[in-house]
Amino acid sequence: MSAVTVRTPDSGFENLERRYETVARLVPYLLLVVPFIPYVLSQSPTAGAIGITAGVAAAAGAWVAWMVILHPGPPRRPWQGYVYFAGLLLFIAVLTFRSPWFAFFTWIGFLHAGQYLTGAWRWAGCAVVAFFIAMAQAGGFHRPTVPLVTIWVLLAGVDVVLIGVFTMLGVKVGEQNEARKHMIAELAEANHRLEEMIAENTGLQAQLLTQAREAGAGDERQRMARERQAAGPGQPGRGPPLGPGAAAAGAGKQQAAGGAGR
Q1: Fewer CB under 10 Å: which end of the chain, C or N?
Q2: Is the pLDDT of residue 194 over 80?
Q3: Domain-by-domain residue ranges, the chain?
């Protein structure tokens, strides 16, 4: 019987996945810094406005770092993910009001909605994020009017379909890959236990075979000892000694043979 060989996930794919995770941790900060260039060039803000916007962006970066870097992976408690996403939406709203160029950072909301929310809340979070992206696409926040709000809603619907759906599909694929990796790891562990059991059974079989050989050799020695005892002490190979009756019969035969000779 041989063990079933189970391959672990390809190391090359794991390295690529780790690189992607590293880049994904850095992207939010890049998307907070890059919009400053068009923000300053196109809106000509005052020094005070730049300072306020920079402070909000720094706070948003710290908020993302709290969850993504200090608490990587799925949140230990579901409420942590919801609290984090609510704070992220607050920063997205403020930055979008400051400048529509921060819609680059707003896009992160789609990814984090899939990572930190569950069930229907994922789609609700994507809808809110899409609304702020639509606002930025329409030129930023202005005094709401019926036509303008209609445009925001229409653009948000398109963004949910084009961005939200593909983002959710990516999240689902990631969850399936993670589940597949756990399954392969469990199969590898089961295969390792099976190999240990086979090795243990092989050792037991060898031990039983040795004991059987030793028992057979012992029986052979006992049989030879019984034969030697039956042959008599000091006369190996001869039959057992004659009894008194057999000795007398032998003497009578010798006398009869002597009389016939006379």
Answers
A1: C
A2: yes
A3: 12-188
